[in-house]
Structure formats: structure tokens, C-alpha cells
Amino acid sequence: MPGIRITDLQVTKYKELRGKHTQEAAAAKTGISVSSARRVELSTTLPSQRRARHWRTRADPLGDLWNAEVVPLLEGAPGLMAVTVLEELQRRHPELLASVVLIVV
Question: Do 77 and 42 share a domain, yes or no?
Fold first, then answer.
């Protein structure tokens, strides 16, 4: 599942179970995917021992607007909801945020 990190406990448990079970069974019992299990087997360190990533994987699409417009909006009215800020940015810059679709549930 994207976004959910594998814990040290899961890695340790997986490696214990891997001696007795197949890769698929050990992964299922640990609650990780088979592709994650393959990465665990290749890795020599626990997740908590890895250094955090310090670089960006892509340019920030709101980098120019953030300090110039979003921060002053929030300082002027701290109670603004995120939806309101997004709608205001879409009104001011329709060309930049045309692809953002707002779905309110």
C-alpha cells in the first residue's frame, strides 16, 4: 500500500518467518507485499537505520505562489480552510491550476 512504511518489527518478523515459509507466505503473515519482501531480503539495514531523503523528486508546482500569496492569505485569516485557499488560487491563476480538480465529499 503506498504511503505506509514498513516497520522494523515487520522486517524482523519477516526474516524470522522466511526461514520456515516461502517468500509469499512470510510476506502475507507479516502484512507486506511480495515486492516489498524482495527489497527486505536484499537490504542489510532496518528501515529506522536508513537516512531520510533530503532531495526533491520533482519541482514544487506552487513554489512561486506559496510565499507570495498563500502565506499572506493565511496570515491575514488564519481560519481559512484549505479548500478556500485552493479556490482563491484557482481564481487568481486559472492557467496554473487548471488541472487541479476539487472534489469535496
Answer: no
